[in-house]
Specification:
Blueprint: E1 3-4, E2 27-28, E3 34-36, E4 40-45, E5 51-58, E6 60-65, E7 70-81, E8 93-94, E9 99-102, E10 105-109, H1 113-116, E11 120-123
Parallel strand pairs: 3-5, 6-11
Antiparallel strand pairs: 1-2, 3-8, 4-5, 6-7, 7-9, 9-10, 10-11
Length: 126
């Protein structure tokens, strides 16, 4: 069943609106929960044929180190904290703002993996 961003079929009084065909402009999507694991992506074509590359799972992150002013491609070892939802840590779901454990230390995610298709992070000092 398709997710729709259109108003409800029922009025507040309980009556019904006239039937209308579903249109592409009213299509919605379920949230993409990026998990920790082997890289897997999904290509989504949206309104006006715009292409979005959604990240379903990933095990590497582009991490920026402020001290050396360099980027490193590091393996994600574990998810430590997720402020979006405390149960996401147990389910290994990565979102923007979550803190991950890498080979060089803890890093905070600054990108939106489910929307942008990559994981960018910044090292966090302890």
């Amino acid at each position: 069943m398709a997710v729709s961003q259109f108003r409800s079929k029922k009025k507040a009084s309980g009556g019904r609106y006239k039937y209308r065909v579903k249109k592409k402009k009213n299509i919605g999507n379920l949230p993409t929960f990026t998990k920790l694991g082997k890289r897997k992506t999904k290509l989504v074509i949206g309104k006006s044929n715009s292409i979005k590359n959604k990240l379903l799972s990933e095990e590497m992150a582009n991490v920026y180190d402020f001290k050396t002013k360099k980027y490193y491609k590091l393996k994600i070892l574990n998810i430590i904290e997720n402020k979006a939802n405390r149960h996401f840590v147990r389910r290994n779901i990565i979102t923007k703002g979550s803190i991950i454990k890498t080979e060089k230390g803890n890093a905070k995610i600054v990108s939106r993996p489910g929307q942008q298709g990559s994981i960018n992070a910044v090292l966090v000092e302890k």
